[in-house]
Design brief:
Helix content of chain A: 10-25%
Distance between the termini of chain B: 31 Å
Largest sheet of chain B: 8 strands, antiparallel
Strand order of the largest sheet of chain B: 12-18-17-16-15-14-13-19
Oligomer: heterodimer
Number of domains of chain B: 2
Largest interface: A-B, 32 and 28 residues
CATH superfamily of the largest domain in chain A: Naphthalene 1,2-dioxygenase Alpha Subunit, Chain A, domain 1
Number of strands of chain B: 19
Largest sheet of chain A: 8 strands, antiparallel
Shape of chain B: globular
Number of helices of chain B: 7
Radius of gyration of chain B: 22 Å
Number of helices of chain A: 5
Order of helices and strands of chain A: EEEEEEEEEEEEHHEEHEEEEHHE
CATH architecture of the largest domain in chain B: Alpha-Beta Complex
Shape of chain A: globular
Strand content of chain A: 25-35%
Radius of gyration of chain A: 22 Å
Helix content of chain B: 10-25%
Strand content of chain B: 25-35%
Structural class of chain A: alpha+beta
CATH class of the largest domain in chain B: Alpha Beta
Number of domains of chain A: 2
Distance between the termini of chain A: 33 Å
Order of helices and strands of chain B: HEEEEEEEEEEEEHHEEHEEEEHHHE
Strand order of the largest sheet of chain A: 12-18-17-16-15-14-13-19
CATH topology of the largest domain in chain A: Naphthalene 1,2-dioxygenase Alpha Subunit, Chain A, domain 1
């Protein structure tokens, strides 16, 4: 993979929904091509380590976790959740090894709004922030958390996230929109931290599912933030619905999409079982389209970005380039996006 | 030989028409995806019945066009609904608003020249289809004739290995053995005269060997002529009295380790129609026997061994190599092709 296409390292990536990791449990996962052991200690704090014992590279996930320390299954080396080695059972009295100097690599972890995020670079403090969800406290949990895997290179999956042109063709189904419901759209965009935002506007009414939400004027804004997070914020009267989609590279050819939906309307919660199949169909349509695109990309064709519909994709490439350069040169990030109105049909 | 030079020589010829599929496989308004010479192609037939082939990738985001919809007029890409004419020219980009005119006609999917001859679709790889050898017209058959039977099989073989097999007379006694064709051990000395013919060579008309049982049953004065022609075309023409049985047998490379072998068979004797189910079994058995041998050979070829070509049994394979090299050179040097084959009688046991 060429350097431009490689995922940014100095960035927070969505790892798993909080509810996937119970107290005293661990979960092994490959992210950005690296084996990761995620876990939650008996106090409830989340941690992440490289899932390889520094001794003989046995995955630590094959060992045991007592809520405090991980014991490697091979020689019983023990590690604190900080990654530091606490015991090597094979050592006899008098054999002095400074265990503090042995450690499994630790990854910075943050838990925000019911999700666990991981950092892969060297300087998490200077990085693009994990998006805040307006209208929901940091300890809120999503009412819906769906995970889908795509056979796709990261950039293509992210571009699909903010690509208005594919909607009428890929997301064609009776409950969402029919094939003929085409309308000219005009949306104003502005730079926002580490990305851009489609500014607040009255929601377009050709998406039938939205009509069902009812209850007063409906307004939406959509923010994109590096490395690949989209937050759609909709207010209906006094209620709020936030739809967050975060993309995480698993390896060069696989991407995981996590879709978290939060709402304040109490009447919507019992409808969850009804909503889920629709959400899964929708995400499955994206998965199928990206999988097919991946067949074509094997031939390494030249691609095109055409018209206003593809401007957001252009912005993504520029944002990524500038972010990488700024971090490499140790200078502040300068958002390359300018305020602009985009017009397209979808 | 240098490894690079070997790889270069093994590449399929460009500036050539390759067999794609029987015309009947391409229904009006349908799309058919294929990979030939390592390139993804989508074949289609428009409302007027004209066949076409495009690179099977949308120029926008690279998704294969065959996943889209074809109404017999335009292909609509599955991803963003871009529409393309059979010429490859873009006809519409739905996401563009009317207020933003864009010259979509300047966007093109590369189109491959396509020709339909005697019920088969051929596709051209190269720059100059007019200067290349024409799609061969099968002898003794009207131009509008369609094959009475077709058969195609994909084999995991290097293209040149499959080509060698196509012009190799001496694997017959070992590979094509069956009670109804020839017995194991039935091997005898043969003497066949060859002459150069356009872009290849021809085994001049002769009476078929008497160790092929079915020929005895066909009756009449029998004569066989076998024409080989670049890039990988073998035409077997048989005459039984006033009747003809013509077989077009082609190899089209899919990748450097896979080929598609196709058969199109034509006959003039209506009695043969009754035997069609049997014919399918016979051709299928032949193709499977060749495929089996090529598969085994591919296991050995993984070790990249050097190969041997002996006289006279393998002379046709040598000719093939020379023809291929001469054609590649003539194209590179932009000069006329000179057939390197001389008239010659080959003697071998088979």
């Amino acid at each position: 993979m060429d350097k431009a296409a490689a995922p940014l390292r100095e960035a927070w990536y969505y790892a798993v929904p909080s509810q996937k990791i119970w107290r005293g449990k661990t979960l092994a996962k490959i992210l950005l091509g690296e084996p990761i052991l995620l876990g939650r200690d008996s106090e409830g704090a989340v941690f992440a380590l490289r899932d390889l014992c520094p001794h003989r590279a046995m995955p630590l996930s094959c060992g045991r976790f007592d809520g405090r320390e991980i014991e490697c299954c091979y020689h019983g080396w023990r590690f604190a959740t900080s990654g530091v080695c606490t015991a090597i059972p094979a050592l006899v009295d008098g054999q002095k090894i400074n265990l503090d100097r042995i450690a499994a690599q630790r990854y910075p972890v943050r838990e925000v709004s019911g999700n666990i995020w991981l950092y892969f670079g060297a300087d998490p403090e200077g990085a693009a922030a994990i998006p805040e969800l307006e209208g929901f406290p940091p300890d809120a949990s999503p009412q819906v958390a769906e995970t889908v895997r795509f056979d796709a290179a990261y950039d293509h999956a992210v571009i699909g996230l903010m690509d208005p042109g594919h909607v009428p063709f890929v997301h064609r189904s009776w409950f969402w929109r029919s094939g003929r419901a085409f309308a000219e759209k005009e949306k104003s965009f502005a730079p926002s931290p580490w990305g851009f935002t489609m500014e607040r506007h009255a929601t377009s009414m050709n998406s039938r599912a939205y009509k069902l939400l009812g209850g007063g004027p409906m307004e939406t804004d959509i923010a994109f933030t590096l490395p690949g997070v989209r937050v759609e914020h909709t207010s209906v009267g006094r209620h709020t619905l936030v739809n967050m989609t975060a993309m995480t590279p698993i390896d060069d050819q696989t991407v995981e999409l996590n879709n978290c939906i939060y709402w304040t309307m109490p009447w919507l919660t019992p409808l969850r079982p009804v909503l889920l199949p629709f959400i899964r169909t929708f995400l499955g349509q994206d998965r199928d389209a990206l999988g097919r695109q991946n067949e074509g990309l094997k031939y390494d064709p030249q691609l095109m970005l055409v018209g206003d519909a593809d401007i957001q994709a252009r912005w993504y490439y520029r944002l990524k380039r500038e972010y990488r350069a700024a971090r490499a040169e140790n200078r502040p990030f300068e958002n390359p996006v300018k305020k602009r109105t985009l017009r397209w049909r979808s | 030989m240098q490894v690079n030079e070997r790889a270069e020589r093994a590449k399929p010829l460009r500036e050539m028409w390759y067999y794609a599929m029987p015309s009947a496989a391409l229904k009006p308004g349908a799309l058919a995806a294929r990979i030939y010479l390592g390139e993804p192609l989508v074949f289609g037939r428009d409302r007027d019945g004209t066949a076409f082939a495009l690179r099977d990738l949308c120029p926008h985001r690279g998704i294969p066009l065959h996943h889209g919809k074809f109404d017999g007029g335009e292909i609509e890409c599955a991803y963003h609904g871009w529409r393309f004419k059979p010429s490859g020219q873009c006809a519409a980009i739905p996401a563009l608003p009317e207020s933003h005119p864009h010259d979509v006609g300047r966007i093109c999917v590369p189109a491959y020249p396509v020709r339909e001859v005697q019920g088969n679709v051929w596709v051209f790889f190269g720059e100059n289809p007019e200067g290349a050898p024409e799609v061969p017209l099968l002898p003794d058959l009207e131009p509008e004739r369609r094959p009475n039977m077709t058969y195609a099989v994909r084999v995991p073989a290097r293209p040149d290995d499959a080509l060698f097999n196509l012009v190799d007379p001496t694997h017959n006694p070992f590979i094509h053995v069956s009670w109804w064709w020839r017995r194991r051990g039935s091997i005898r000395a043969k003497e066949k005269a060859f002459v150069p013919s356009p872009y290849g060579f021809t085994m001049v008309p002769h009476r078929p060997s008497t160790n092929y049982a079915p020929y005895k049953l066909l009756g009449g004065e029998a004569q066989t002529q076998i024409i080989f022609r670049l890039p990988g075309i073998r035409i077997e023409h048989m005459a039984f009295g006033k009747h003809r049985l013509v077989t077009l047998n082609t190899i089209t490379p899919i990748s450097d380790s896979e080929i598609e072998e196709s058969y199109a068979i034509y006959w003039t004797n209506p009695l043969f129609n009754l035997l069609k189910p049997l014919g399918r079994v016979i051709v299928g058995t032949f193709a499977a026997q060749d495929g089996g041998a090529l598969r085994l050979q591919a296991d050995g070829a993984k070790y990249n061994p050097s190969m041997m070509l002996i006289d006279d049994a393998d002379t046709q394979a040598k000719w093939y190599y020379r023809l291929k090299q001469e054609y590649a050179r003539a194209c590179a040097e932009k000069r006329p092709f000179v057939n390197p084959v001389q008239p010659r009688v080959l003697r071998f046991r088979s």
